[in-house]
Amino acid sequence: MSHIRTEVRGSAGLVTLDRPKALNALSLDMIRDLTVALLAWRDDPRVERVALRGMGREGPFGAFCAGGDIRFFHQAVLAGDPRLEDFFTEEYTLNHLIHAYPKPYVVFMDGIVMGGGMGISAHGGDASLRIATERTKMAMPETNIGLFPDVGGGWFLSRCPGRIGEYLALTGQLIGGHDAVTARLADIVVASSEVPALWDDLGDDEAFARLRERVAQAPADGGASALAARRADIDRFFGLPTVGAIVAALEADPSPFATETAALLRKRSPLMLHVTLEHVRRARHMKLADDLRMERDMVRHCFQLRPGAAGETFEGIRALAIDKDHAPRWDPARIEDVTPGMVEAFFASPWPVHAHPLRALV
């Protein structure tokens, strides 16, 4: 059964992620079906723009995409399933396709937008429209499962204003639509009640021109944004050079923001906090193709550096989604016990340049 529904209406190619019971978490088949549709429409003169939405439990909208199918990751590790490698190679290739897409790419980020959902929403080119609502719940929560913000997360988070990217990457903090605009991860916030009509009008050129004009005139500051209100503190703490320095400064500060943020970081994988900070700061100076190649190296190490159940990612998924005890046994257990060598190992490519699975990305 396909969990991707496509149609051409007027001059628009429309995609619906249709796996509502799993909050539209991406399977390998969904990644492949979405890629096939985008490639076909890229070269189809009838299609002038592409739009993407998610199916909610009660009908269209209300949920966008909760990320990659982490239950599949867990099963694939136990079974030695080679499709785990295919998943990341093809997902990152799709992220790059969206980034380089020559036609307007419109995303309705209504409801949950996390992890892999960010990978298919944050990367549209200059002609993209990223529409959030009051129901948007956005996050890159990978450090909570012993992973790092992949799907090009290093690239788009490092381009958030100030140190918002480091803050979101390390904490996995959930943000709303106005925060997403502040972070430059969305272009406009509209009422969820408006979304069905906007979708229905996408095939009409004049209606789409009006939507583009509305987005162009939307305030760039995100309106009522909690991120904007916390910006000075975020920059002060998350601009520090190391995870150890960030946590020490937070724990020395008596403010509620510092106390809550330090406690949150203490729950994340210590190893992957260090890896993630290094990742975001390297990606700040890379183009997307290079960042995706680096992430492909890193995600291979997440599953192979300590094979099978010994890995941080396997343990994080076990604790969050399989056993649901929310008590991961991180190794190392403390932020202070992570060594530079442990971090550096994630950035050594397991492939020579000519054989890298993403060598064709430019």
From TrEMBL:
Domain Enoyl-CoA hydratase/isomerase: 13-347
Superkingdom of the source species: Bacteria
Coiled-coil parts of chain: none
UniProt keyword list: Hydrolase
Pfam families noted in UniProt: ECH_2
SUPFAM superfamilies xrefs: ClpP/crotonase
NCBIfam families reported in the protein's UniProt record: PRK05617.1 (NF004127)
Listed name of the protein: Enoyl-CoA hydratase/isomerase family protein
